[in-house]
Amino acid sequence: MKSHYLLFASFFALFFACQKKYDLPSIAKNTDWKSKTISPYPQNLTGNPDSGFYFLTNGAYLGSGIPYDLMKKRVERNREKFAHKSGLASEYGFAIFETIQGVEVMNGTCFSCHAGKVNGNVILGLGNSLNDNQTNLTFPAKLMNWRVRKKYKNDSMTIAAFEDFGNYFKLMAPYIHTENPGVNPAARIAEACMRYRNPVDLSYTSESQYDVREYNLASDIPALWHMQKKNALYYTAVGRGDFTKLLFQASVLGIKDSTAARVAQKKFVHIAAWINSIEPPKYPAKIDFKKAALGKQIFQKKCQGCHGTYDKPETYPNKVISITKIGTDPLYASYGSDSRIVDWYNKSWFAQSNPRSWFEPERGYIAPPLDGIWATAPYLHNGSVPTIYQVLKSNSRPKKWKRSKDSKKYDWEKLGWKYKDKNRGKGVMTYDTTLPGYGNQGHTFADSLSENYRWALVEYLKTL
After folding, report:
1. What is the pTM of this model?
2. Domain coordinates of the chain in residue numbers?
3. What tens digit of pLDDT does each residue of 117-153 get?
4. Which of 5, 59, 159, 354 has fewest C-beta within 10 Å?
């Protein structure tokens, strides 16, 4: 039925998923620090990468999902086409698995967000920025719950296999749709789900544990291979401690309790191993190495203090830059610092059991590694800048810009997405930098470069 596809397509949108009520946190205009270095935390590196990829794609760590019986005919007719129509770069973005009740269900995997496409090629680990997820999912979530509970009302096992997913999808749906295309509300997914979980055992509670702001902020999707160098996760370095607990964000939508969370966490030891094994994609087009050599000298003077070095052995400083120094849109950092999930998380199973993970927000953004940067457009923490060239020349950034969902519309000269200026209205795949939290200002460190030096720096970045 057509409604089945609508429900499932809407469901996948939530993995990337801002309401227009601008209930915004106060933004600190000044900080008493310019940068901070994040110290390392010991990680479990004993996992098996092949097992990790298997666990990533088979979906069992997700706990529950939509009864597969609802989607079987449509999906099995053409899995690859179905994945594409669901907004996924790869069919790995969804999984069919058996729950503890013995029921086959369907749910989105980590590759719903972390399988991107450039020039027609799927790159596992790359953020999927080609989705436009501005639809409010409140009604589809209610419709899905009604449809499943009506169809399977006499089938207690199927209802039990769907229940956790159904509850959390319905509760978080009002809080996760985006104001711009290509951005991801992963932090809001966690915030909206955790507020209805008991912090001690993560079990469902009908009473909210904390308040959330109405305005939904989203971010760009970082490449997974950058985790290999990081001592903290997420754009504000809020995620500290054990990565295996920080990584399974998709699980919070469907796992039942801390017992199920522990099973998922053990699988993520192997998933972390797979992430540590992947290589950033090599730039596939021609490089002017003479120009790149000049660009390398400029990079060493202007950029490596924050972004690291890329000769063997490579270095990465894990440096968080204050919002006053970096100058990029400060709302995401301020929002994270003010979120009530921080206190909840630090009192919860995540922080109170071993291995520990905890939240320690900063009013700043971590300068990311630049491995494979050519493929990771758009840029800045909120995905507001379409090309690398414009990151290096702030007055060239478009105010409103529209791009295609065709991954072949790539700008090989400026490194990023081809786009059209969109001075009026919104429209499909149109990014509006005038909205709160989505500004394209800041990171002006290369503005003083001559055009010759700027293009040389772009050329060097192709080699990373």
Report:
1. 0.90
2. 2-461
3. 999 999 999 999 988 878 888 898 899 999 999 999 9
4. 354
